């Protein structure tokens, strides 16, 4: 049991030159800041450590490393093994408007060498940040040029490094961090298999699993014609909407933004029905289903019944029966859950919305 828990701890380095936007994105993703509030954040001094519990069974040991030259030199010399040892993921952030881009790449290359020496099995993600400052027509070309140049300096990670254009002012930040988190989750494949089974049982067009605290998508299952949905950023749009709800609830109820959660949100249109509900203590499930009250009600009941099955994924050593057995035994588990009560404040929203709201979410 203890070994399994240790295996679920992941050391993540967040690095880049000072002012690149590392702490801003960390605060938005993990501390429920909104973009306009990060201006008051100061520069990171040396290393700021954060232990972030994610989906119950995954602990992110996040090292936000100050990017001033003196700190970086110290990381590469006196603290080399301490900083770069046992790393699962390196996230390196480049400022797209940096006037010292080549010097930034040299610093990145030195860090890559240290990582290759101390943690050769690590995964590298490069975020080319502040893309909102570039004219829209030039963004794609500039991103590709910078990514190719940085790739050439990635040495042993050249073929595996992943690049993302990001900004704190749009959904691109959520898209990048969703991919990072997906890589870190040890049982993502098992979760996807269960979601696929559940989607077939309830006839869902799409199921999307979100982590409750960060509102990041964990994974999704898309079926049938929903695969042709032209809104490829709809998952990140919903992340943004969920974050906005949390901020609004925190503002109007006095609950800290990290603790504010809603029990359920429902949207019904003539073409589809959509709802977001709590699946486990650590996750919310979004479901897009056909426009039928019978299907809608049956889906909600079946999700209620399968909650204990998904909750078991937090304990790696427990046996996992099939999803049908989960339906069979879940009534008793749900009764015990009601007796314990939900310790998180929650609010129920039920919306019959105009079509433009559904369009904003990425469904038509």
Could you provide a short overview of the structure?
This protein is 43% helix and 21% strand.
Could you spell the SSE succession in H and E letters?
A: HEHEEHHEHEHEHHEEHEEEHHEH
CATH topology of the largest domain: Rossmann fold
- What is the residue-mean pLDDT, rounded to a whole number? 82
* Extended strand count: 12
Our count of helices gives: 12
Distance between the termini: 46 Å
Give the neighbour order of strands across the main sheet: 2-3-1-4-5-6
Query: What class do helices, strands and sheet pairing give?
Result: alpha/beta
Q: What is the radius of gyration computed over CA atoms, rounded to a whole number of angstroms?
A: 21 Å
* Largest β-sheet summary: 6 strands, mixed
Regions with little confidence, pLDDT below 50 for 5+ residues: 1-7, 315-321, 337-354
Proper CATH architecture of the largest domain: 3-Layer(aba) Sandwich
Q: Tell me, what's the shape?
A: globular
GO molecular function, one term: GTPase activity
InterPro entries: Gtr1_RagA, P-loop_NTPase, RagA/B
Protein name: GTP-binding protein
Function: GTPase involved in activation of the TORC1 signaling pathway, which promotes growth and represses autophagy in nutrient-rich conditions.
